[in-house]
């Protein structure tokens, strides 16, 4: 069994595609197939079920992937310690909500890239579904969430701060004329929800359920920017982080409704897999992120006021 074969196996297992693995590793697909076949023959088990053009890990493949991750992480750690690598290199794949990516990430990237220009960074819009599995598999190295918490015993997290969440509408929306908006006033409204900005939408859904508000129109979007423009066009109302709407509220393109549930905040969580070795590159990114968020917390932020 060679490390090259384990690396190839891990890529195929994560992508569940021989063709995509060949592209990522810059091998011919026949070379990928040959490496997996040799590995299967050496172990005496089938690692993948071939279903036409699709592949699926067998039970033996799932077990091998866990050990392959440990072995390859140990190799990386050994190389780093023996060679005394001082400057982080390589690549990281990071999942982050759109709001944090637009409003908080640029400051982190500016400092990190100036200090570690050799690191390649790949960012994916964050969706809560499947996040824990991707962290365990190593598909995702690090994730950020706008959430109260995440329930997974093998994931570690650090709280970087808190973001206020507000209920917004177009200035001419009927609810914008009210001095106080109660949750039951949302009955019959069109509510615009985000699929990908992680879990702060659950705050609204929980409140609606508690207040027994069940009659409303639900529109779902894959972009916070699209939601904002739909709000400004009068399509409906939405719950969004204050930082996402501050500029539009200041320019009076939308208003923050005086919601009786005011004062809601969600935590900014940085999440990683506890069992995985923290490489110098990943540690450097985590350290820079913590520093930049701490500096931002020390600066006075522009408040978004509600309309009264």
How would you describe the overall organization of this protein?
This protein has 308 residues and is α/β, with parallel strands linked by helices. It is built from eleven helices and eleven strands. Strand 1 (48-51) and strand 2 form a beta hairpin. It is elongated and about 70 Å long. The relative contact order is 0.15.
Give the overall silhouette. elongated
Major β-sheet profile = 9 strands, mixed
Number of helices, counting only DSSP H or I runs of 4 residues or more: 11
CATH class of the largest domain: Alpha Beta
Into which percentage range does the β-strand content fall? 15-25%
Helices and strands: which structural class? alpha/beta
Q: What is the helix fraction of residues, given as a range? A: 40-55%
Distance between the first and last residues' Cα: 70 Å
CATH superfamily of the largest domain: Periplasmic binding protein-like II
Output the radius of gyration.
23 Å
Say what the CATH topology of the largest domain is. Answer: D-Maltodextrin-Binding Protein, domain 2
Summarize the helix and strand pattern as letters. Answer: HHHEEHEHHEHEEEHEHEHEEH
Mean pLDDT: 86
Total beta-strand segments:
11
**Based on the structure given, which CATH architecture of the largest domain is correct?**
3-Layer(aba) Sandwich
Short description:
The protein has 308 residues and is α/β, with parallel strands linked by helices.
What features would you highlight for this structure?
D-Maltodextrin-Binding Protein, domain 2, nine-stranded mixed beta sheet, alpha/beta, 308 residues, Arc Repressor Mutant, subunit A, 3 domains
